[in-house]
Design a protein that fits this description.
By secondary structure, this protein is an alpha/beta fold. Helices cover 64% and strands 10% of the residues. It is elongated.
C-alpha cells in the first residue's frame, strides 16, 4: 500500500496548488453542511419556546443561505478535484504511450496487443477514479465525520456513544471486504485483458477465420473466455454488493437505538426536541460517509490493481537505451555499413539467426542480400536499424558502432521499406509523407519512382483516398509501392529494402527497379530479397544460408560459379517461364 500511495502522490506533483484548493473547498463544503442541522436545531428550539412569525422568515432565510454556500463549495470542490484527475489521466496516457514506443521489439514479440490496449484505456480510467473521486470522497468523509461527531457530542454524549459503538464493526468489515475486493478486481482485470486480446486477434485476422470456417470454434472460445470474465465480475459484484446492505443494517440499528434513548430523554425533559432533530440530522450526514466507505474502498482496490498493471509496463526499461552521451557523427555521413564477425540470437531462441557475419558496404554502393525464407536476411536489416543489438561482434554505421548512436540519430539516416509495410488509417498522400514536410513535386516524384502512379486513376480520390485500417483497401503490391514511395521521398544516407517487391508482378518489378537504380545512383542501398531479379544490378551480392554468408560477388560471377545463387536463379527462371506459358 505504501508503494501505491507513493506512486499516486507522484502524479499529483504538477497540480499541487489545484489539489490543495480543491481539498480546501471540500472542508468548507463540510463546514456549511454541518451548520445546517445546527441552525435547524436553534430554529426548532425557538419555536418550542415561542417566537414571533417574523422570526420564522429569519430562520428560513438562514437555512437557505447555509445550504446555498454548502452547494457552492461542493460545486467548486468537484470542479477542482475532478479536473485535476482528468489532467492526470491525460498525463498517464501520454507517459504510457511514450514508454510503449520506446520499448524494444522483443517486448512486443511476447506481448498481446489486446492486453496492452486494456492497460492503456480501462486501467488508466480506474486509476483516475482513485486520483479524483476516491480522494475527494475520502477527504469529504473524514471531515464530514469529524464535524458531525464533534457537534453530536455537544448535543448529547450518551447518544453519540451509541453511534461510536458501531465504528470498530464498520472498520473490521471494511478491512475484510477490501482485501477480497482487491483480489477479485485484479482477477477480473486480467480476464478482461485476455478477452480483449482474443477479440483483437479475431478482428485483425477475420479473413483467416472466414477462410478456414472457424466461426463456430472461435465463438466457443469467446464464450469460454467471456464466461470466465463473467465469473470474475460476479465474484467482484458479490463482495461489493454484500458491503452496502451490512452497512445499512448497522446504520438502521443505530437509528433505532437513538430513537428509543432519545425519545426517553425528551419525555424525561433532559433533551429538547430541537436537539433531537439536529442529532438525527447529523446521523443522516454520517449515512453517506458510512456508505461511501465501501465505494471508496472498492475504487481504491480496483485502482491499486490497475496501477500495478500500468507500473508493470512503466518499470520495464527499454532494452535498447540511448548511450550517454551519444556519439552521433556530423549531420551528413556517407551511409557506410560494416559487419565484423556479427552473431545474433533472438531472445528465447536456441540457435543464432546470424553466425559470424562480416561484410562492408561502401558509400554509394548497392548491396544485394539473397537467401531462402528463414536464412537470416531480415535479421541483418533489424540489426542495422538497431531494432535489436548484436550478441557478439561489431556493427558500424558511418564508421561508428551503432550502439554509440542515439536511436533517433541512427534511424533518422536510414529509410526502410519492410516486407509487410504498415499503412495508417489515413490518405495515401499522408502515408507517403508520414509526418514529414514534403512538396507536391517531391510526392509526385516518389510516386513515379515506386510506380504507384500507374494505379492512381483506380483510386476513388487519387492520392487523397483513405486506405482503411492497416491499408486494408489496397492490394499487397500497392501497399509495398506506397512504402517504397515513403522511403525514397526522404533524403536518407541509406535505403534498406527488405523483400520490398515480393508482392508486385514481374513487369512492375522491372520498372520499379529501373527507377530505383537511377534514384540510387548517389545513395547507399541494401536490397534484401529472395528474388535474384531484384539484385542483378547490385554492386555486390551476398548469399545467406542458415545465418552465414555462403557466397558473395556480382550477378554474373555468381552465375558462372554454379553455386547456391546460380541454382536459385535457374529455379526462379524456370518458374517464371512456366508461369508465362500457363
Amino acid at each position: 500500500m505504501a508503494e501505491f500511495i507513493r506512486r499516486v502522490l507522484y502524479y499529483y506533483r504538477p497540480y499541487r496548488g489545484a489539489v490543495i484548493a480543491g481539498l480546501v473547498f471540500v472542508v468548507l463544503a463540510n463546514v456549511f453542511k454541518s451548520l445546517s442541522p445546527w441552525v435547524l436545531r436553534l430554529a426548532v428550539n425557538s419555536i418550542e419556546s415561542g417566537l414571533e412569525r417574523a422570526e420564522l422568515w429569519h430562520w428560513a432565510g438562514l437555512i437557505v443561505g447555509v445550504a446555498a454556500l454548502a452547494g457552492l463549495f461542493t460545486l467548486l470542490m468537484r470542479k477542482k478535484v475532478i479536473s485535476v484527475s482528468r489532467h492526470i489521466e491525460y498525463d498517464i496516457r501520454q507517459r504510457l504511450l511514450r514508454h510503449l514506443l520506446a520499448l524494444d521489439p522483443s517486448f512486443y514479440d511476447r506481448s498481446r496487443i489486446g492486453d496492452l490496449m486494456t492497460r492503456s484505456t480501462l486501467d488508466i480510467e480506474q486509476v483516475r477514479m482513485v486520483i479524483g473521486p476516491a480522494l475527494m470522497y475520502t477527504v469529504n468523509t473524514i471531515f464530514g465525520f469529524l464535524f458531525a461527531m464533534v457537534l453530536m457530542f455537544t448535543i448529547s454524549v450518551p447518544l453519540t456513544l451509541i453511534v461510536i459503538l458501531i465504528g470498530p464493526i464498520v472498520a473490521g468489515l471494511v478491512f475484510l471486504v477490501g482485501r477480497r475486493v482487491h483480489r477479485a478486481s485484479t482477477e477480473s482485470q486480467e480476464a478482461f485483458s485476455d478477452l480483449s486480446a482474443f477479440v483483437q486477434e479475431n478482428v485483425s485476422g477475420i479473413r483467416v477465420v472466414k477462410a478456414f470456417l472457424q466461426h463456430e470454434h472461435q465463438q466457443r472460445e469467446f464464450a469460454g473466455r467471456s464466461g470466465t470474465l463473467l465469473k470474475k465480475k460476479m465474484k467482484l459484484v458479490l463482495f461489493q454488493g454484500t458491503f452496502m446492505p451490512l452497512i445499512m443494517l448497522l446504520f438502521g440499528t443505530a437509528v433505532s437505538a437513538i430513537m428509543l434513548v432519545g425519545g426517553y430523554y425528551i419525555i424525561e425533559g433532559t433533551l429538547r426536541v430541537g436537539d433531537y432533530v439536529a442529532f438525527t440530522g447529523y446521523l443522516m450526514m454520517l449515512t453517506w460517509p458510512m456508505v461511501s466507505i465501501g465505494w471508496v474502498v472498492s475504487l481504491a482496490q480496483r485502482g491499486r490493481a490497475s496501477l500495478e498493471r500500468i507500473n508493470d509496463l512503466l518499470d520495464r526499461g527499454p532494452g535498447l537505451p540511448d548511450p550517454d552521451p551519444p556519439s552521433d557523427p556530423p549531420p551528413r555521413g556517407n551511409g557506410t555499413v560494416r559487419f565484423d564477425s556479427v552473431t545474433f540470437t533472438y531472445p528465447q531462441a536456441t540457435a543464432p539467426a546470424l553466425n559470424s557475419v562480416s561484410f562492408e558496404l561502401k558509400p554509394g554502393a548497392t548491396l544485394g542480400i539473397v537467401g531462402r525464407v528463414g536464412s537470416g536476411k531480415s535479421t541483418i536489416a533489424s540489426l542495422i536499424t538497431r531494432m535489436y543489438d548484436v550478441s557478439n561482434g561489431r556493427l558500424r554505421f558511418d564508421g561508428v558502432d551503432v550502439r554509440a548512436w542515439s536511436l533517433a540519430g541512427l534511424r533518422g539516416r536510414i529509410a526502410v521499406v519492410p516486407q509487410d509495410p504498415l499503412l495508417f488509417s489515413t490518405s495515401i498522400r499522408d502515408n507517403i509523407r508520414l509526418g514529414g514536410e514534403f512538396s507536391e513535386d517531391e510526392v509526385a516524384r516518389a510516386v513515379e519512382i515506386s510506380r504507384l502512379v500507374q494505379d492512381i486513376d483506380s483510386f476513388p480520390d487519387g492520392l487523397d483516398t483513405e486506405v482503411g485500417e492497416r491499408g486494408i483497401t489496397l492490394s499487397g503490391g500497392q501497399k509495398q509501392r506506397v512504402a517504397i514511395a515513403r522511403a525514397v521521398i526522404r533524403d536518407s544516407e541509406l535505403i534498406l529494402f527488405d523483400d520490398a517487391l515480393s508482392a508486385v508482378d514481374a513487369s512492375t518489378e522491372e520498372k520499379i527497379l529501373d527507377n530505383l537504380n537511377r534514384h540510387l545512383e548517389d545513395r547507399t542501398a541494401i536490397i534484401i530479397t529472395h528474388r535474384t531479379t531484384s539484385v542483378h544490378e547490385a554492386d555486390e551480392i551476398l548469399v545467406i544460408d542458415d545465418g552465414a554468408i555462403v557466397e558473395c560477388g556480382r550477378h554474373g560471377e555468381l552465375i558462372k560459379r554454379g553455386g547456391v545463387y546460380a541454382d536459385l536463379f535457374r529455379r526462379q527462371k524456370m518458374a517464371r517461364e512456366l508461369e508465362e506459358a500457363a
